[in-house]
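Q: My hope is that you can spare some time for a protein that puzzles me. Underneath my words sits a plain record pairing an amino acid chain with its backbone structure tokens. Those tokens are not coordinates but codes from a learned vocabulary of shapes. Thank you; the sequence and its tokens follow:
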Amino acid sequence: MFKSMSSAKSINTNQNTNINQHTIDTGGQLRTRYVFRKHPLLQVSTLLLFAFALLLSGCASVSESSGGSAGGSTATSGGNETASASGNVRKIIVGTGTQFPNVCFIDENGKLTGYDVELVREIDKRLPDVEFEFKTMEFSNLLLSLETNKIDFVAHQMETNPEREQKYLFNKVPYSIFLNRVAVAKDNNTIKGLDDLAGKKVLTGATSNAAYLLNQYNKTHNNAIDVVYTSGAANDTVQQIVSGRVDATITTDFANRFNTDADGNVALKTVGEPLNESNVYFVFRKDEQSLADEIDKAIEEIKKDGTLKQLSEKWLGDDFTKTLAEAKVTQ
């Protein structure tokens, strides 16, 4: 039992708690109350734990997720509203792959990177009202995931064609511009351009931009070129050209780097002037025009200040941001 005192004194009950005994004058009678106070060390520990909890709750959201199928978290067409330190931002889910060397792939440290990935990250820096989150999946699932609102746009070196343009929206500013050229075996010195393909067999994909170019050429040149469509087998193009079963193909300087022999060496060479452009865009749903416009504005800034050129040279090995007209001027 504690005695009443006119001043406070501390009674140590254990290492972690102090009891301060105060005498209070109430109507001429002395009454005592006991105030339990935390030990200073406990106060510091509590504050540290509280601060750590706040830090965890304020961390940025995960920027990468994966989904081997078209499933996964749903992204609405307008983007999800998420709280951030600076206010509300729209979360935009970006669909991409992991199997395209230099474009979208997993590096030796397990990080998703490549030209398309790093460009999206650069765009993210320039659009303060949006936050991009990557969702990786098989290439064949990208457009289906876009249609079903599981992603908001596709970043995977996508080109336009009439069928795609009917179903999807493409932004207006291309972020890669690949120039198609004739490609032949390295020891072929007789074919130097498109006109030299008369009477020759040229291998291409049935629905490719190259097939369209060759068929348009044949319409005005009496079907001079024998167009052969590839079976799609692995390395089929190199095998057929090197063996002499066909004479040439149409490809870009970038894509030709993957036309390798059994030893991994580039087996074909490109010749002649560029024939046409293959422009690469991001793909959106038809109702995402405002998002596409925002991204176009950012790409224009990135191209103007030289960042797009730097990214292309770093990841693709050359400046693949020039138009056909610009490329001919610099030749």
Summary: The first strand starts at residue 9 and ends at 12. The chain has ten helices and 17 strands.
